[in-house]
Phosphoribosylaminoimidazole-succinocarboxamide synthase
Amino acid sequence: MSGFTVKPEPVQVPGLTHLHTGKVRELYATASGELVMVATDRVSAYDWVLPTEIPDKGRLLTALSLWWFERLADLAPSHVLSDAPPPGAPADWKGRTLVCRRLDMVPVECVARGYLTGSGLAEYREGGAVCGVALPAGLEDGSRLDEPVFTPATKAEVGEHDENVSFEAVSAQVGAELAGELRELTLALYGRGREIAEERGVLLADTKFEFGRDAGGRLVLADEVLTPDSSRFWPAEGWAPGRPQPSYDKQIIRDWLTSAESGWDRAADTPPPPLPDEVVERTRAKYVEVYERLTGTPVPFG
Ligand SMILES: N#Cc1c(N)ncnc1-c1cnn(CCN2CCOCC2)c1
């Protein structure tokens, strides 16, 4: 079992239809058919949505996503129409709400990896390849790949892991031409993100993009982009292949949850306990740090 300890009750807003409760975001529709993505302060770890929120996480990741959308706009248009909450929305939606164009979503998680870790490492250790792409022998946890690799996945049901699939499987699912466009665009977007992050001393190990098509059939960048929830960011100074790299944002939580202090047994498949204030504060500080280090600006709110 994993997922929510207690499934949250979404806020009801006049004029909005609630569509979906994700691990850390809520999705609504307006009467005119636009989508409203609301980023919460929820955080997940080890496939559980934790009972303790991280203050300002939703606003920090929304601001970071907007910052990246601007820097990727010459490569792909985005689905974002506005960052202004709809009329009648709760005041605390300000800064963590995106009103988006409704797209015909491509049912593929478009993942790019510049470093080997996580499910990619596990697959590599089994067969020397990831998503059917053969990699050199001798790679370790955290190894930088000679070239970034497109490693798509199919979207999993809530509580399940996405399944890595081959480029050939994506081609069979969406057609070879679109599969080729997805790979090319995913790698181009990853390359831009990695370049900008590295200039700031941050390694972009991997990231997941989602695309949809607009009425004209054009590929549009959807969902969130290049946030700690959709990507692995590592501080360059801490990078050392051959061991798990410290995650920028979740390492503090993971370390506490797996420490004796938490009293939690991950293998017991029981919900994690609430986080101590000190873990919450240090985690919030990490989100602030990754935002300020990447954007070069202070967080845009008090
Ligand atoms: N983005 C977007 C988008 C769009 N622009 N048009 C139509 N559908 C979607 C959509 C619907 N679900 N998802 C999966 C990811 N969700 C993101 C939000 O939070 C919940 C998970 C994408």
Q: What stands out?
A: The first strand starts at residue 3 and ends at 4. The CA atoms of residues 25 and 194 lie 25 Å apart. Residues 176-199 form the longest helix (24 residues). The chain has six helices and 19 strands.
